[in-house]
Amino acid sequence: MSEVVTLAHGAGGKASRRLVEDLFLDELRNPLLEPLSDAALLSANGTRIALTTDAYVVRPLVFPGGDIGELAVNGTVNDLAVSGAHPLALTAGFVIEEGFPLDELRALAHSAARAASAAGVAVAAGDTKVVERGAADGLYVTTAGVGLLDPRVDLSPTRVRPGDVVLVSGSIAEHGIAVMLARGDLRLELDVESDTAPVHREADALCALGRQLRWMRDPTRGGLATTLNELVAGCDASVVLSESTIPVREDVRAACELLGIDPLYVANEGKLVAIVAPRAADSALRALGPDAAVIGEVRADDVPMVLCETPFGGSRIVDMLVGDPLPRIC
Amino acid sequence: MSEVVTLAHGAGGKASRRLVEDLFLDELRNPLLEPLSDAALLSANGTRIALTTDAYVVRPLVFPGGDIGELAVNGTVNDLAVSGAHPLALTAGFVIEEGFPLDELRALAHSAARAASAAGVAVAAGDTKVVERGAADGLYVTTAGVGLLDPRVDLSPTRVRPGDVVLVSGSIAEHGIAVMLARGDLRLELDVESDTAPVHREADALCALGRQLRWMRDPTRGGLATTLNELVAGCDASVVLSESTIPVREDVRAACELLGIDPLYVANEGKLVAIVAPRAADSALRALGPDAAVIGEVRADDVPMVLCETPFGGSRIVDMLVGDPLPRIC
Question: Are the C-beta atoms of B73 and B115 separated by less than 8 Å?
Fold first, then answer.
């Protein structure tokens, strides 16, 4: 581990994982935190609840398809939803740079409120701090959320079995590319919008599969590749993706090629990836709607890893994200 | 309201209140958020829980008596405790500036872990984001917490009655003064330490008073004066403090005089203020321990306000904090 924090530590890939495991988990270790999943599962007087948090530092604050207010709400709703929990209430903590325009702040609060309303959840508590000019880049938001665990499901990497099917709820890589394009550094003439959206309805529909639903996640920072690598580390089997089945919009694919970035590593903010038992695959596809796809399967393997089979019959290893090709994407 | 966010908006006083009411509450309005108390109270499948969040931007990150890691844990534990809730679990979101030393980060995580352990609660979920050099001042932490409501109590400003007694759990103004002195701008030779500590044991002891306990708060940003003004706004009666009974350490009082700041406006991070029925005053004092004091009473008044009676027989109006004499204190 290097001696100072680097941007790669915040990218959601290998360095992030190392920082979390070697420093935060090492210091804060407890049974609730230890699974390092999207939400901690705990019992409140016998009621099973999920608890999660995410900090948002996306730049710019407003981008095609969304803004930091909406993103911060959807991200936390989604972390609860993919943990098999029905969102009950959110909190939002704002760190604001002195001089930030109040009308922009109001627009972001409005956007957060609209997203919360769309997800059927309230922002129940908040806090606001102000730092001097130059001590923040406009605004940072940290949301937390509490949800009620769905008793129908038991989601865990350890429940994933060889033969299980990998599904994604729609086309990938839109959020990260939209944010990169919004920065204007690239001078590409593409109209890519962020996919920021709540996935609680899709997650709820999958929960109806009961124990045939093994595991869900929302592939944000580090993209589908990193999320599936985290799964593989916990389930002791390989995930084999079929590249041609992974939905990617043409303009997003073109932007990825121009940027030299694999869409598998680009953040999504309104998609979920799920693993289900083979006989539940058709029901899962129907539950997720017309944009969903089966993109791979789980295979027994001596050395668990994520593989991607190309349309030409070859296959490549898909490792976790290394470095930070897309800083401050969420 | 001015057109941009100012430091006063983050100070916890009048401008903060206006920002929260006129902008955040206006946009995010819902019955859980509306009371604007330290924690939102909600029901999870019939189990009553409290939910709270606080962002921490204190400068410097380490100060006599504590650091941002400990402060962020104690602050959220305390917001739950004074809401009559037993802390169940916390979350912590870190926004870190690129280049931040990893050993300092580890020390702050260690400190947060120690504080959590002392309060009998786990940091169950976390998130880490990294921003470029210059886009943050070292590190910001936002904690959230969930707690189980104590069924013995029903705490609300509306339950406060004329004749009720005001207590504080110990001497005031230490945290704010310690942080100001730690900045070194003042060149005062005083050894004031922050009072950062969890108050959950004191709060729990007061909960044993049942419905004779009317209301509790931890007087942080804006100090005792601002906290009591917020109470008065919600209870339609006046609070009359007796200045000579308010515990202030001599060195803290001296620093306040040199700085020209009333200790009533200085942040505390390990104290609680409580209102109890008159016949419960002695039990409350015993429950809070030897540093506690009765500092005033609630009086019927046509124009509810906070008053402070001086040792010379006069009295003055104690308004909410205006402006920001002590920026980035928590």
Answer: yes
**Per residue in A35-80, pLDDT tens?**
999 899 999 999 999 999 999 999 999 999 999 999 999 999 999 9
**Distance in angstroms (rounded) separating the CA atoms of residues B159 and B276:** 10
Domain B45-149 class, CATH top level: alpha beta
Which of A44, A57, A123 comes nearest B49 by C-beta?
A: A44
DSSP string for residues in A216-275: EE---TTHHHHHHHHHHHHHSSEEEEEGGGS---HHHHHHHHHHT--GGGS--SS--EEE
The answer to whether A142 contacts B127, with C-beta atoms less than 8 Å apart, is yes
B61 touches chain A (CB under 8 A): no
Angle between helices B68-81 and B102-118 (to 10 degrees): 30
Contact list in A for residue B128 (CB cut-off 8 A) is 9-10, 16, 19-20, 24, 55
A157-317 has which fold? Phosphoribosyl-aminoimidazole Synthetase; Chain A, domain 2 (3.90.650)
Please choose, from the candidates B44, B49, B38, the residue with its C-alpha nearest in 3D space to the C-alpha of residue B157. B38
| Minimal C-alpha gap between A98 and chain B (Å) | 5
Domain definitions of chain A by residue range: 45-149, 157-317
ipTM: 0.96
In 3D space, the residue among A103, A113, A144, A111 whose CA is nearest the CA of residue B30 turns out to be A113
